Amino acid sequence: MSYIYIILLLIGSYLLGSIPFAYLLTKIVKKIDIRTVGSKNPGATNVMRSVSKRLGLTVLLLDFLKGFIPVFISMRFFPDKASTIIAILSGILTVCGHNWPVFLKFSGGKGVATSAGVCIALIPVDSIIVILIFVSIWSITRYISLGSIVAAVLLPAICWLTKKPAEISIFITIIGLAVIYRHKSNIKRLITGTENKL
Question: For the whole prediction, is pTM greater than 0.85?
């Protein structure tokens, strides 16, 4: 194993995660700074709600892929015993890049789509089940935030209940807690009934 490749992968994971697709696409296509409209969050949900559903879905897909790709590469191109740990580190850095992007002065999105990409690359079956539950909650309630919060609780619970390797369960739990923390203002609005629907 060449450590230089691992270092490059990890640096690349953070930089890929830092690409602010919501900011770039709205700026290029609509000449809008997404940080000045709607919730001012540079993420797919704000783009869908405040600018364009089609553009928002494009951002959603790109944010998902930037989480999926580095973890998928880690799982496929490094030795079995090391691949999981490298993939976890790659996933952490990718989500950190999205949440705290170097290209936007460390002020980014909430990391749901990017986290979903990371999780599907790492534990695909469980993640797909939880994503289907997320979509169901969103479809019924029209609250993306509620679906995201439920998913952030449910996936770690599944990992622990199905006795996934400890390092994966701990990592998924950290990802879930990060998503919940990033949604703390949404939780307050859900409680008071003032959260925006989509």
Answer: yes
